[in-house]
Design a protein that fits this description.
This protein is mainly alpha-helical and about 350 residues long. It has one domain. The chain is about 70% helix and about 0% strand. It is built from 16 helices and 2 strands. The chain has helices at about 1-10, 10-35, 40-50, 50-75, 90-105, 110-120, 125-140, 145-155, 170-175, 180-200, 210-235, 250-265, 270-290, 300-320, 325-335, 340-360, and strands at about 90, 160. A two-stranded antiparallel ribbon has the order 1-2. The chain is globular, with a radius of gyration of 19 Å.
Length: about 350
């Protein structure tokens, strides 16, 4: 790892741009080939009782937890520097944003990562959804809704520093009841990752489905690879240190569009924007290779409205919840963030509510 660190340290921005592009490309190809989709997994479970694809999502999160925690324990990636472990619990954002995001992803036909994959496969509806997602995310992050969002967060967030916590990781929380160091980390992994592994290999029977097994393992490993790359690129002494991160697809879609507009001023794209371009390219190449590339348009005006409204909901909800089904459901959980747990549960709940409403209207 020292050799890798030395190579990356010579040009961290270039390494993050190239690495983000390649990780995104692999993610896009893998998701397209294995049909990895959390919204689809929740739909399978609620409509037919099939838990196979939900098992792939659980496996991805569990593998990422192991990978991220090993990187942190080995001193390769300092997870405490990531946005997921700030010592402030934004429970309103996690729950409210998660519900809005989950509801929106059903209307839009998939979460942001799935919409990117669909766009790469020729779905023109997904391109429109991505535009709506980007505008809504920017509005919530730094636009007309930004000050309202910040005000609500500041008024309701719980400061964990008062409880003696330096981060919001489960590992730190366990320290308040007497568990510290590697023991606390191991207990945290078991408490958060254990049920995910148990579900994937038990009720979901992921071992009986090579495609779901490959999807879950692959996504989990790619998120771990993202953590490794950003961890090795992190320089605390830099004028503007780039915090360690990994795959997420709400704000990064806006970042990618911003880079397309202002690339001459911004220079190289960051890891997030590069990963978005990679997903589009990877899913496109996979669709061509498997002869599944198909142009698709809206069925009617109602279909257009659902996609735009759902994508806008995902944009606002994803910013509030600090991530999507990948950004919180895999990357966030891999840090053992306490906020990621209610965020993921709320995303699932929001999706279930939307599916039930759609079933009543059919």
């Amino acid at each position: 790892m020292n050799a890798a660190h030395d190579i990356i340290a010579t040009s961290p921005q270039l390494s993050l741009a190239i690495g983000g592009l390649m990780i995104g490309l692999l993610f896009g190809a893998l998701a397209q080939a294995t049909n990895y989709c959390v919204m689809g997994a929740i739909t399978d479970w609620r409509v037919s009782g099939d838990k196979a694809r939900l098992g792939a999502a659980a496996l991805a999160a569990a593998v990422a937890i192991l990978g991220a925690q090993l990187l942190d324990a080995g001193g390769i990636t300092d997870l405490t520097k990531s946005i997921y472990l700030v010592p402030r619990l934004n429970w309103i954002g996690a729950i409210g944003g998660g519900l809005l995001f989950g509801y929106g992803m059903v209307l839009a036909g998939g979460c942001p990562s799935r919409v990117l994959v669909r766009a790469g496969g020729g779905d023109l509806r997904a391109l429109i959804a991505l535009m709506a997602l980007a505008v809504a995310a920017l509005a919530a992050f730094s636009g007309v809704l930004g000050s309202t969002r910040v005000g609500i967060e500041q008024a309701t967030a719980i400061d964990l520093g008062g409880a003696g916590l330096h981060t919001q990781s489960a590992t730190d929380a366990l320290g308040t009841i007497g568990f510290h160091g590697s023991i606390a980390r191991l207990i945290g992994i078991v408490l958060v990752g254990g049920p995910l592994f148990a579900f994937a290999f038990g009720p979901a029977r992921v071992l009986s489905s090579p495609r779901n097994l490959a999807g879950g393992l692959g996504v989990g490993l790619l998120v771990s690879l993202g953590w490794a790359l950003s961890g090795l690129s992190y320089d605390e002494m830099a004028p503007s240190p780039i915090a360690p991160t990994s795959l997420s697809f709400v704000k990064p879609v806006s970042d990618a569009i911003d880079w397309l507009e202002r690339s001459t001023a911004l220079g190289l794209p960051g890891f997030a924007a590069a990963s978005v371009f990679g997903v589009l390219a990877g899913s496109f190449l996979s669709a061509i290779a498997t002869q599944s590339f198909r142009y698709a348009g809206f069925a009617d005006r109602a279909d257009l409205g659902r996609h735009v409204l759902g994508a806008a909901g995902m944009g606002v909800g994803g910013v509030l919840a600090m991530g999507c089904t990948i950004g919180q459901g895999v990357t966030g959980l891999s840090t053992l963030s306490l906020q990621s747990i209610p965020a993921v549960a709320s995303i699932v709940a929001g999706a279930v509510l939307a599916l039930e409403r759609l079933q009543r209207t059919v």
